[in-house]
Hints:
HIV Type 1 Reverse Transcriptase, Chain A, domain 1; 3-stranded mixed beta sheet; 3-stranded antiparallel beta sheet; 6 helices; 8 strands
Amino acid sequence: MLVTSLFVKELDISDLLKLDVIGIKDPIEKLSEKEQEDLTKEHSLQSVRYSDKKRHEVHLTWLDNCAPLPDNLELVIKRLQSTTKKLLHENVYDAYEGIFLEWPHEGIIEEVPVDEINLAGNYLSHRPVLKESSTTPIRPVFNTSAPMKGKPSLNESLHSGSNLIELIPDILLLFREKKIGVSAVIMKAFLQISICKEYRDFLRFLWWKNKDYQEHKDFVIPEWSLEFEADLSC
């Protein structure tokens, strides 16, 4: 005889959305999520400063007692070589490189000075995302969670904040309270947020000096304005 038993339980929508992070959150936590988030917010508010360039400079929100980040330069070089092969194969190398040539003039990235290249830091790999229907048909996406065996990634070393997806139902319900709902977009909002100089070496990436693909240049990301494959937030 075959018996099937079902268990039914009512859940809030926010509980269902928490399923998105199953397997990501550490089940053993010294502090509750709420306490951790409050401490992170307090630290961020106390450490933020307004720079001479009229940008709000923020710190990276490191986890307590996190292990030092490994030297991942060789890993990122291999990924750059792989990405380059893909770009050449798909005939989009020049378009992709054009972005990195334009960004320094816009202040989005900065080349690392020669005398600072050997300083400790962390490198981000990047890859192209193609979308021909978009106003930007190709764009780089940076990976802050590239793993090294037995070593933490940048993503695993930072507070990621709460799961903002859980807030979406509450926001949508607000549009039912009145007859007219208004939404707006702040242009270049993330360009108003900058990373403090002492943390920028943890946001390095590589690109080629020329098209023989032998020597690379080191860049840092000073502005919190790029797209990351991670749950970084600020």
